[in-house]
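Please review this one:
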Amino acid sequence: MTEATVETRVRFAETDGMGVTYHGNYLPWFEMARVALLDGMGIPYRDLEREGFLLPVLETGLTYHQPSRFDDRLRITVRLVEKPKARLRLAYRVERDGELLVEGFTVHAFVNRDFKAVRPPDRVEEAMRRAFGSHSA
C-alpha cells in the first residue's frame, strides 16, 4: 500500500455561513494529497502532463463524519490501496488531531490530450511494480 500525507489549515474563506468548512473544499485538498503521492512515487503529475498523459477524475465520493472549522489544522492522507489496472482508485482520510472528519475516494483513468483512454507510461507501471511488489497482479 502506498500513501502520502499533506497538511493544510482551514482558511476563513473556506468556511460557509454555518461556520464550517464548505464541503466542496475537500476535493482540492484531495488533489493536494494525490499530487504528493505521485511525487513520492517518482512520477510527478506535471511531468505526466508534459508527456501528454492526463488523469481526469471519473468518480468521487465523500462521507462527512465531523465538521472542520476556520483555523483547524488538518491532515489529508491518500492511499493507493490496490495496484491499478485500467483505473486508479485512491482512498482519502481527513483528520484533525487524530479525529476522523472525512473519508473519500476518487477514481481516475489515464487518457491522452484527446481524452482517449491509454495505457499508463512504462515508468508509471514500473513505479506500481515497486510499490506493490512484482508478485502483484
The helical segments are 26-40, 45-50, 122-132. The domain at 2-132 is CATH 3.10.129.10 (Thiol Ester Dehydrase; Chain A).
